[in-house]
Amino acid sequence: MDNGPEGNHIDRVSGDEPLLSARVHRPSDLVRLLAGVLGIICVLAIAAFAHGTASGLEEDISKGTGQTPDVFIKLAGLISSIAVLILPVAFAIERLVKRDGLRIADGVLAAVLAHGVALATDLWVSDSAPATIREALTQATASGELTDPVHGYLAPVIAYMTAVGMARRPRWRVALWAVLLLNSFAVLVGRQTTPFSIIVTVLIGWTVAYGTLYAVGSPNVRPTGQTLLAGLRHVGFRPVTAMRAEDVPDSAEQGDRGRRYLVTLEDGPPLDVTVVDREQQAQGFFYRVWRQVTLRGITQRRSIQSLRQALEQEALLAYAAIAAGANAPKLIATSELGPDAVMLVYQHLGGRSLDSLPDEEITDELLRGAWRQVKALQSRRIAHRRLVGDAILVDRSGRVILTDLRGGEIAAGDVVLRMDVAQLLTTLGLRAGAERAVAAAVEVLGPDAVADSLPLLQPIALSRSTRATLRRLARERSQREREAVIEASHAAKAERGADEPVPSAGRKDVRAEKKAEKDAIEEALEQAREEDLLSQIRHQVLLIRPQALVEPARLERIRPRTLVSIIAGAFVAYFLISTLMANDVSDAIATADWRWAAVAVLFSVLSYPAAAMSLLGFVPEKVPFWRTVGAQVAGSFVKLVAPAAIGGVALNTRFLQRAGVRPGLAVASVGASQLFGLASHISLLMVFGYVTGTQHTPTLSPSRTVIAGLLTAAVLALVVTAVPFLRRFVVTRVRSLFAGVVPRMLDVLQRPQKLVTGIGGMLLLTAAFVMCLDASVRAFDSDVQLSYATIAVVFLTANALGSAVPTPGGVGAVEGALIAALTLAGLGGGVATSAVLLYRLLTFWLPVLPGWLFFNHLTRKGQL
C-alpha cells in the first residue's frame, strides 16, 4: 500500500453512489405548498364570513396610524419601494458570483408565476368574488377607485426571495423582513391597501415559491463519498477507502435509513459509517404523518425532524441500548457534513442480516438470542420499533445484534413494548414458523409476556414491509386454494366418465352428480385451506395460555369511514353557514311561530314509542315495552358514532339478547323488522309519489317522476343482476342480514296481534317523522301550501339517502337532500333551510344527550 502523504488516500472512494440527480423533489416543499393554500383559503373565509372583524381591524389600524406625519409615510414608502427592488438584485449578483445561477433561475420562474397568480386573483376579486371579500381586500382611494386586491410587485418579490433561499441566510433574512415590514407599514398607513390584502399577498408569494420548488425540484446537496472522507479526517480519523455497504458482501439491506459505508483506516479496524441527509430524512414523511393521525395511544417519530435532532436521537438510543446490555453497534463519533447532512461512525461488526440467512442456519439458539436482545431492551423500557429481518444482524460467531435503532423510543409505554413483541413474533415466524418463534419467545420472555402481545398481533401494528409480506403470502394461499378447487372439479368430472350426457339419465341422477361434484370441491377447498401466520401464532400461544385475551386492541384513531364523515360534515357546515348568512334565513328565524315548533317536539318524542312497536311486533317473546322505548332513545346516541343502518341493528340485536332472546332469534327478529321496514319504505314512497304526481291532475295518471324513478330502479336492478361482482356482493349482504328471517316471520304470522303491532309501529314511525317535518316547515311558514303527501315524499327520499351514505346519522346527505327537495317543491330557500335545521335538531342532535344517559343506564343495568 502506498504510504505517501495522507492527502493521497482520502480521495479513494469505492462503490460510491452513481451520478446523483441534479434536482430532488422535497416533501417539505409540498407540505409548505399545501399549508400556504390552506392559509389563503382560511384568510378568504375569514374575510367572507367575518366581515365585521375585517372592517373593525381596518378601522383600528386607521385610528392608530392617523397621527403619523405625511412626510414620514412618503419617505418610508419611497425607501421600501427602492429596497424591494434592489435587495433581490443584490442577492442575485452574490449568487452569480458564487456560481449558483440555478437558484436565481428558480427565483425568476417563481416570480413570474406569482405575478400571474396575483393578476388572476385580482381579476377574480374584481369580477366574481363575493362582495365581502372584495371589501376586505380593497380600499377606496381619494379618486373613488379601488386598490388592487393583491400587490402585483410584492408577491413576485416574496416568491423570488423564498425560492432562492434568502430566508435561510441570517443577514439577508433580517434585511428582507425589515424591507417587507417597512413597505407594509407605508401602504397600510397611506390607505393604499388592507391588512387582509397584505396577508394574501405574502401567502401567494410564499405558496407559489414552494410550489415552483416542488415542481422543478431543488438543487441536490447530498454529500458524496469524497465529502464523507473529508468529514472523517476532520474528526480525527485517517481514512483510506470508503465502500458503499450495498457493495459489501453479506451486508444488510439498508433501505431508506441512511447511506452506509465501510471505511478502512490507515491503522486500526474498519468503521461502519451512516450518512443521513435531508433527502433521505424526508423519505416516508407522508406515511409517518398518516400513522400519527390514524393510530391512537402510540407515539411516533416526529414527522418533521431536524438533522441535529435525528443525530441526537440515534446517538441516545445507541448508548441506551448498550447500557441496557443489548448487543448493538457501538457509536464512536458523530459530526455534521455541512448544513444538509450528518454522519454517525460505528465500530465495524460484519455479519449478515436475518433476511439473508438460509433456512438451515436459523437455529433455535439464534431465535432465543434475538429474544434475549429484546428482553434486554425492554428491561430498560426501550422500544426498537422496527424488529424486521434486515435490522437483526448475525455475526460470524452466531451472536445476534440489533441494528437500526434510529426509530426507537426511550421510556416507551406498555403498548409500544408489546408491539415490539408482536413484530418479532411475526418476523421470526416468517422465517422459522409460528411454533418455533413462539416456543423461543416463551422460553426467554415467559408465557405471560407473550400472551399479553396477542391483542397487538394485527397488521396495522406491524411494519410496512411485514404487512407487504403477509399480503403476498395471502395472495399465494388464495392461488393455491383456487388451483385445488379447479383440480377437484376436473377430477369429479373425469370420474363421472362420459363426455356426453346419457339420455336415459333422470333429473335425480343429474342432481346427484352435481351434488357429488360440489362435495368434492368443498372437501378439496377444506383440505387446501391454510391458516395465515398471525392465526397460527395466536393458536400456538393459546395452547400455552388458553385464557389469554386475543381480541385485537383498538389502535386506529381515524378510519376511512370517519374521514368521510369529517369531509361530509365540513361541506355541510360550509353550506349551512353560507345559507344562514343570507337575509332570508335570518328573516325566517326572526318571524318563526314557535308554537309549531312545540308541535314538532311532540311528534319527535312520539317516534320513540313507534320505533319500539315496530321492533316488538317481530319478537314473539315477551320483552318489556318501556325498556324497549329506552333502548330506542339510546339509539339516538349510537347514531352519532355509527351509520344509522348499522348502529341501530347492532343495538337492537344486543338489547334483545340481553332481554332473554336467543342470539340467533334476536338477529332474525331485527332482520325481519328491517325487511318489513324496507318494504314499507319503498311502498310508501311509491304511494305518496303517485299521489303527489296526480293531486294536481284531473285523472289518476302516474307522474313522470314516478315513472322515471321506477325505470331507474329497474335499470339498477338489471345492472346488479348482470354484473357478477355486484350480484355476489348484494346476495352476500342480504343473506347475512336476513339469515333466519323467514322462519321468524312464520312465527310472527301465527300471532296476528304481533304483526299488527309491528306494521302499525312502522306506519306510526313514518307518520311521526313526516308530521315533525311538516310542523317544522309551518313554524317558519304557517301558510305553506305543501301537501302531506309531498312532505312524506321529501322525508322518505332523504331518509333513504341518509341510510345509504357512510356517515353517522346520514349527516350531510340528509340535510342536503331535505333542503333541495323542499326547495324543488316550491318552498323558499330561507324557510327550507330553517325548517330542516329545526327538524334535524329535534330528531338527531337534541336526543343525543338523553340517548347517552339511557345508553349508560341500560349498560349499567346489564340490558345493553
From TrEMBL:
Keywords: Cell membrane, Membrane, Transmembrane, Transmembrane helix. The chain crosses the membrane at residues 30-51, 71-92, 174-190, 196-216, 563-582, 594-619, 664-691, 706-726, 755-780, 786-805, 812-831, 837-855. Residues 486-513 are annotated as: Disordered. It is found in: Cell membrane. InterPro entries: Kinase-like_dom_sf, L-PG_synthase/AglD. The keyword Electron transport does not apply. Coiled coil: none annotated. This is Membrane protein. It comes from Streptomyces chryseus. The lineage of its organism: Bacteria, Bacillati, Actinomycetota, Actinomycetes, Kitasatosporales.
